[in-house]
Amino acid sequence: MNDAMAVLPKLSTGLDVNVRFTGVRDFEYTPECIVFDLLDIPLYHGWLVDPQSQEVVHAVGRCSYNQLVEKIISSKQCTDSTLVSEGLVAEQFLDATATQLTYHGLCELTAAAKEGELGVFFRNNHFSAMIKHK
Fold it and tell me: Which residue range or ranges hold the MINDY deubiquitinase domain (predicted)?
């Protein structure tokens, strides 16, 4: 409860959340996430890697956004051609999905949200309330 109370003042300036590209409810844990857990409100995003794109799946792995950016930066300074290639694929994924919503993510979001459920949708550093209706 104390952790959640410490986060509340941040609501006026913004919360630090960091998506993982593996599921619509997958986020790197940050102290700010506790507010959603405490209120039992699901936090969603739609920025997913399509599992059929094996090269991208391999390059992105279970990285969060921040981890993936670090991987891309370090790959540019690397001499290992495999790591350089993975970094390029990861960078192309971020460039191609700069809207932070993919078709696969939208399909998964539709499947994961429950009918009538109040949730929060995170996209482009903004939070929106959402309710699934039909």
Answer: 1-134
Predicted TM-score (pTM) of the model is 0.87
> Which one-letter DSSP state was computed for residue 44?
E
Q: Per residue of the chain (134 residues), give pLDDT as tens.
A: 666 566 666 555 667 789 999 999 999 988 778 778 888 999 999 999 999 999 999 999 999 999 999 999 999 999 999 999 999 999 999 999 999 999 999 999 999 999 999 999 999 988 899 999 88
What is the C-alpha to C-alpha distance for residues 124 and 127, in angstroms, rounded to an integer? 8
Number of helices (H) and strands (E) in the chain: give both, helices first: 6, 5
